[in-house]
């Protein structure tokens, strides 16, 4: 299956309106489900929800934070990375800058900013955090709290090749167009669960990254 979930026209809002809506609808309250295994992040997909319930019973919760860097060009873009093929998890996949939350991180926001600097050299003076998006759970036990941020153009990246092999920008308008939101299914212990994919040129954006982008679309564009 590779059809958009909702048959709606592509949303057309300006960069100014996007950030205005984000600041109104998002905040920096940390959801308790980030660390509490008894609180299951709901996805609206029965197969995914059941999978997350099973994972929470079998694996420890792994709190993580990512940055959704929306670069404030006249036509905004989202900065994404391609993970190293040598990593132990999600090797070679398209991702946001981010990773697990360390004990020394003051907050999930601090973890996301630290990881963005470590992975691609995106310095904090270019980043204007807007707020947390919804908590996102994965089949590997990660509870990911994304931070949406407005990024000032003009930064120079320094790729940490031990973690990331490339960084690139994708137009926000492409990622927020539901016509580009493919839905696929895969089996998890006899159950069908769905996942999103948003292929862009030679880049295959899927899994948690595409799922989080879909949540961003639903929170900012659908209302």
TrEMBL record:
Its cofactor is Mg(2+); Mn(2+). Transmembrane segments: none annotated. GO terms for molecular function: coenzyme A diphosphatase activity; metal ion binding. InterPro entries: CoAse (IPR045121), NUDIX_hydrolase-like_dom_sf (IPR015797), NUDIX_hydrolase_dom (IPR000086). Keywords: Hydrolase, Magnesium, Manganese, Metal-binding. Residues 60-196 form the Nudix hydrolase domain. PANTHER family: MITOCHONDRIAL COENZYME A DIPHOSPHATASE NUDT8 (PTHR12992:SF11), NUDIX HYDROLASE (PTHR12992). NCBIfam families: PRK10707.1. This is 8-oxo-dGTP pyrophosphatase MutT (NUDIX family). It comes from Bradyrhizobium macuxiense.
